[in-house]
Amino acid sequence: IRCDAQGGIYLAWLEALQEIDQAFFSFSADEGRTWSQVLNISRTNAPVYLPDLAVDDSGHFYMTWLSYQGSRAEVYFCRSLDHGATWHLPVRLGEESYFGVAPVLGVDDRGAVFVAWPRSSDAGSAVELVSSQDFGQTWSSRVFPAVPWPMSGWRPLLGIRPGGRMDLFIARWDNGGLLLDIHSSLDYGGS
Fold first, then answer.
1. Do residues 127 and 146 make contact, with C-beta atoms less than 8 angstroms apart?
2. Whose CA is closest to 78, among 26, 35, 135?
3. DSSP string computed for 104-151
């Protein structure tokens, strides 16, 4: 669930459609008195897990989720650029050569979109952070090594503040103790 200062409420949830969980979306522009049509955003034959939703001040809505495609867990992204009325087709983020887990989504005050998730492959484990400066049309990627593996079932956290401050929090176990890695940027994720 997300809310804005104008009384908008935005919901993303999982619901079984023919016994397969899908990501759905609906919104209210009047503090919950009325609701938009319910839309299936994921539109897939594969089960969907862990949806996340972000909304910017210009009426752009973004959703991400995890979907199992065969033996792989992949991260998907979808966007609406017209206040949630219509949605583009979902796209897979990242490479097919690794196993993704628990994506988290954020938008900065300039409209840039960020998605972060833990991943593993034969090459090791890491947290991938992808960003888009064009509303989710194209993406650039940064990888943060996380050895040992980030905590199972724990999403990384994105803290995004106006003026370019962004923090990526990654929890992991090391020698039997909990560690929290914090990666910070003061230039909208540029460094």
1. yes
2. 135
3. EEEE-TT--EEEEEEEEETTEEEEEEEEESSTTSS-EEEEEE-SSPBP
Residues 6+ apart with CB under 8 A from 155: 50, 102, 103, 104, 117, 118
Predicted structure pTM score: 0.88
Burial class (CB in 10 A: 0-12, 13-18, 19+), 62: buried
Phi/psi for 113 (5° steps) reads: -105, 140
- 153 CB contacts (<8 Å, ≥6 apart)? 101, 102
> Can you tell me the distance from the alpha carbon of 105 to that of 82, in angstroms, rounded to the nearest whole number?
19
Largest CA distance in the chain: 52
Give residue-wise pLDDT tens across range 122-175: 667 788 899 999 999 999 999 887 655 555 557 789 999 999 899 999 887 777
User: Which residue ranges of the chain lie beneath pLDDT 70?
Assistant: 96-98, 122-123, 146-153
> Is the omega angle on the peptide bond into residue 148 within 30 degrees of 0, that is, cis?
yes
The pLDDT value given to residue 152: 53
Whether the Cβ atoms of residue 84 and residue 69 lie closer than 8 Å to each other: no
Contact predicate 109/162, CB 8 Å: yes
